[in-house]
Every structure is written in C-alpha cells, then in structure tokens.
C-alpha cells in the first residue's frame, strides 16, 4: 500500500521539474538504476550472465517500453490534468487483455469484451467533458496517457516472457536498459539540460529517482511476495485514487461529476477484467 501511495504522488514532483519529458525519464531511470543496483549489492545478489543472454531480446523490449512509458506519461501530465492522465493510464489492463490475444493466443470471452466496452465508455465520458482551457489540451494529454498505458502493457507482456529473473534483479536490469536506450536519444534531441536545473528541480529529480522509483519498486516487490495476487491487485488501486486526490487537493485541478463517473467505469472495468481473469485461471486449474 505504501508503494502505491508513493506512485500516486509522482505528479507533484514531475510538474516541479523544469526539464523536457524525455530528460525527466532519463534521470529517473539513471537514479532508480543506481539505487536498485546498490540494493542488490547490499543484499549480495548476483545476476548470472547466462540469464541475461538467454532473455536479451525481451529484456531489450521491456527496457524500451519502460522508457517510452515514462516519457509519454510525463507528457500527459503536461497536456492535461493529473486526473485525466491517471485515468487514461489505467487502460493498462485493457491493453494487456487485447495484447494477450496475439502474444499468448488467449481467447476473448464475452466477459472480457464487456470490460473493454465498459472502459471505452468511461474514456468517452472523460474526453467528452474535457474542454481545453488555459494551458491544457486534454485530447492530446489523454492520448499520451493511453499511449503510456499501451507501452506499460508491452513491458508487462515482455516480462512474462522472461525466465529465471524476477523481482528486484529484473527491475534493475530493465531500468539500466531503459536508461541506456534513452541516453543517445536525449543526447541527440534535447540534450540533458543540466545547465537549466534549479534547486527545486534537482530536489524533485532526486525524490523521483530514489523514492518514486528505487524505494517504491523495492516496497512493491516485497509486498507482492507477502500477499496473494488478488489482494495485491486490489491494493494497486490505491495508486489512481491517491493521484486523483493529489490532483484535487494539492494541484487544485477540477474533476467534474461526469469525469468522475468515467473514471469509476474505467477503474471498475480494469478491476473486473483482472478479477475475472484470475477466476478463470483458478477454474481451469481446478479442472486439471
């Protein structure tokens, strides 16, 4: 729960960093990598080189997807409200269901189709009542949020194809690869922006990299090992609820009743999709 509370407050710090989204993503990956590799050293955990070679293809895909996920999510925060960005980002389970059709050849049941349609209805409500105002361009921001959700789903699917690595070692490798991929891209486009960093931006970057990446991931994996999968799935919804509260209380962003209704539909669809998926797996196992 603590890791989800931390993830839910990420927007406060991202909005206080005077850098482009790709630069923020690079520094998050670099600082998070250093923290997680330090954690592995303290725990005296080693990652066999053979496992890295064996999983190289999917590790690279996961790292690329994570880097794109961060850039797109941070862009979403710049173009729309945190509530809209977070709710569109929670299309992740829906994208995972659709990708599973092609990656794992899973069937699309009537219940899953209903969840997809429910989530699409929720997104329609959010976009339909989000007129552009001030510096916001809500359709563009929501589009970035959906794209971030897609790449998150790609990262999860890639990780499911990785064998022999789990928890902190897998995350540490993914962050290093993501940072490595982002390095030439940032260098050739915007540059790293070190000269434009202020004291506030540096502090927010440190919090983002160490607390919202390193510590939060360590807590999340520790918690995932200690509770059942369905309990973990339920607790994961602390993240979007916290983000919406942060949006309203700290960032003073408005959330209309219609947008709230759309958000409830998206979160309900995501929860039901996950719950029904776990239930179908349990039924299949019991028949075996």
Automatic annotation (TrEMBL):
Domain EamA: 1-127, 141-272
Compartment annotation: Endomembrane system
Record field: transmembrane: 25-43, 55-74, 86-104, 113-130, 136-155, 162-182, 202-220, 232-251, 257-276
Top-level lineage group: Bacteria
Pfam family, one: EamA
Keywords of the record: Membrane, Transmembrane, Transmembrane helix
Membrane topology: Multi-pass membrane protein
GO cellular component, one term: membrane
Main location group: membrane
Similarity remark: Belongs to the EamA transporter family.
Protein name per the record: EamA domain-containing protein
